[in-house]
Amino acid sequence: MPPAANRASLRAKWLVLRMCLVVFGIASCMVLVIDARQSRWVSKLMRGGTSGSQAPATPFEGIRTLSAAASEPAELHDAIAAERFQQGSVLDWDPEAYRAKTGGGIPRVLHHIFLDGEQEYDRLVEEKESGFKREWRDSCVGNHSDWTYLFWDRESAQIFLDTHYPWFSATFKGYPKTVLQGDALRPFLMHAFGGLYIDLDVQCFRSVEESLLGQDIVLQSEYKGGRDVVNSIMASVPGHPFWKAIITEMLEKWHHAHGHVDTDVVLDAGGPRLYGDIFRKFTGGSLRTPAFVGAHQVLGSRIAVYGLGTWFVPCEFEDAVCHARMAQEVQQGRLREELVGWHHYSGSWLAGIPKGK
Ligand SMILES: *[C@@H]1O[C@H](CO)[C@@H](O)[C@H](O)[C@H]1NC(C)=O
Hints:
Helix content is 49%, strand content 11%. By secondary structure, it is an alpha/beta fold. The strands form two sheets. The chain has a seven-stranded mixed β-sheet with strand order 2-1-3-6-5-8-7. It binds 2-acetamido-2-deoxy-beta-D-glucopyranose. 2-acetamido-2-deoxy-beta-D-glucopyranose is lined by residues 139, 142-143, 203-206.
């Protein structure tokens, strides 16, 4: 395509995509971008039919083309690249192929995320009111001393995304709140590395390894009734399609939020509600009970969900009596067999986020 037409086409594509984003959201629009090549009315638009006549060729054509390419709307670029990611990424693994190649198993990689960095973390744990304790982090690192430990701050996260998911870099940088960035990073870490992700307000009683045996994904439900899975504690093999489904929906929800942030957006666009929705869709007909807790066979992979009272969650978030009892037990050195750790819920993700509807 000659440069001028290329530019006009980009402009038209961007126009159509923008209209589409407003009306339908990103997933439908990515389909449109792909379909556009076959669709006659759109290709007319792309040839510049409705966006004015083409500029005459000049000696500066190449230069202007370069600047036009440089100002290509980031969202258009991201949408096309995201679509490519959907179709296939070098970091994808089919769960069965993964087992065949590696013998299976969730890799021994422990991820912590604290985007404001190590120094800020040091400051936080010194602050009494913060409720964060260094010993919790140390207990998890210490009980997985033969694992690879990855501590993610904003800089390392950005480098990771720039390298492996460059189409997501700008979106990541553009999130207006740290909590959104932290949530968004998790499924990418699971997709690329696998391993165990836990929040920094989780204490470990022992190694998680035994509880992961034979599983492709292990998730935690934190509420009575077990109709939820959370993103504060999760383990996985790398490249699993579940993470791709999470990433896709996460991007769509975020685009629908139009940059607005409240507690609902946080829960929906990267937080627990997103995980619940995708888990329900993903397990589809295989979900025999309304509760997520238990063992699931999905697309040739094994997913285990631990419920309230097991794995890392002895107590519901607000159950002060239960947390006090736990504190006593732990102090006396009585650690329950069914628990590998304790989510203390000191994380203050709500700070500075306006309440949703
Ligand atoms: C393992 O966890 C327990 C309980 O949190 C802790 O007391 C112990 O120091 C940890 N082990 C190591 C090697 O860090």
